Amino acid sequence: MPVARSERLLTLLQTLRRYRRPVTGTVLAQETGVSLRTLYRDIASLQAQGAMIEGEAGIGYVLKPGFMLPPMMFSEEELEALVLGSRWVARAAEPRLAGAGADALAKIAAVLPDDMRDMIDSAALFVGPKRRDEDSADVSAIRRAIRLERILELHYGDEQGRISRRRVWPFALGYFEHVRVLMAWCELRQDFRHFRTDRIIDMALHEVRYPRRRTVLLKEWRETQDVPIER
Amino acid sequence: MPVARSERLLTLLQTLRRYRRPVTGTVLAQETGVSLRTLYRDIASLQAQGAMIEGEAGIGYVLKPGFMLPPMMFSEEELEALVLGSRWVARAAEPRLAGAGADALAKIAAVLPDDMRDMIDSAALFVGPKRRDEDSADVSAIRRAIRLERILELHYGDEQGRISRRRVWPFALGYFEHVRVLMAWCELRQDFRHFRTDRIIDMALHEVRYPRRRTVLLKEWRETQDVPIER
DNA sequence: ATCGCTGCTGCCATAAACTGTCAGCAGTTG
DNA sequence: CAACTGCTGACAGTTTATGGCAGCAGCGAT
């Protein structure tokens, strides 16, 4: 393997691109399996080659977008990961999102060289069977409401069978083993609440956007959690 | 200037792309200012990194088209599906495959139009927590054996704690709730068998390929199942 | 079949590059 | 202020890259 260094530089670039937030040199050094001093040298090399990597003391490194690394192709493992993920989505998500996953994979396949295209079809990784409760609500519509940051009016029955009607600000959707759970700010309770999609009796999408950004809501919600959702 | 080699490899790639006809190694060596011997080594390095360069004796080198990922367009739903799938892989698969999923997503993000790139970060779909048993075997090595259609020698303990040693032909890997299951043709039993990866005590990859195609094995295995694996 | 061109590999000595450790300076955050 | 982080220099040990040489094998034309 006489590619040690070049390969490592590409890995480093890829790692930097994977993180969006600033990453400390120490972390990068560990991930690439190299000493901190060498990491600094690697960064300098990449910068010398034109990569727009910004480093700030006390912060870390960030890669400015738009830098193309030449061997821009998926590895076999990456394709396997994409296929496996898509197969899980096909099984666990509602039909419409499942279809979107298949479409996305097809688009990726379309730009792949012939021999790599085969790898998508012949990927040997499969997802175990998964029973999924029927959604009574239209999950696609919920996803749309989240994207558009629009208020949802819910007609909801909780586990005790109590039926309530509330306006909520939807900001995330959790895919669990058997159910999907909508996470939202509840205007009624003035707090975060979650709602199983199979218990949503009826639903209406309002015309108006709710007054906050969904990413901010998500961030605040995370801070209330003991175990944070990763990524 | 510790970038001599990496930079030269990029130049080489660019030069190969510029020519469309086959180019001889001698020409490439001159253009990159290096000896012929080194040029051969450089080509080997690029090929090792995944570049699809074809060399024919008496002809020269050609870079197969389609090596670089072109810009791709995805719908919002397709991106959501890709992100959700990748997040599931990050949680359910072994670290290496999980990382590959994240890398793939980052590569997709890199060729996305700017305004779409944000949607990857702000996707509001999440995967519920998932406890996963530790693998005792190296699942990455198993995936590799499947890809290469190579014989695996297993040291395996079944649920009764009986330990056996067998040669198998691995052809698929199932990702279930808590475990991963290797599906293979067992030479000992002359039949299909499945093996939980957390029960594999030890494992060795043989040099030789097994005498059949893994896709055929998969097809035959499916016919023995009551509930077929979809897709 | 023979010849020239070309890809490809192994070997080896030398030169160049890389690497880790240690030490120190400077900027940011809390 | 303290803790963290980026950044640079120097040095010694190690690794790697390189070029030259020799030889084998596939391709095309003579």
Tell me about this structure:
The structure is a homodimer of 231-residue chains. With 231 residues, the first copy, chain A, is of the alpha+beta class. Chain A has three domains: 4-63, Arc Repressor Mutant, subunit A (Orthogonal Bundle), CATH 1.10.10.10; 76-121; 139-223, SH3 type barrels (Roll), CATH 2.30.30. Chain A is built from eight helices and eight strands; from the N terminus they run H-H-H-E-E-H-H-H-E-H-E-E-E-E-E-H. In chain A, the strands form two sheets. The first copy, chain A, has a five-stranded antiparallel beta sheet. In chain A, helix 2 packs across helix 3 and helix 4 (76-92) packs antiparallel against helix 5. The relative contact order of chain A is 0.09. Chain A binds a DNA duplex (30 and 30 nucleotides) through helix 3. Chains A, B: Residues 8-61 form the Helix-turn-helix type domain. Chains A, B: It comes from Rhizobium sophoriradicis. Chains A, B: This is YafY family transcriptional regulator.
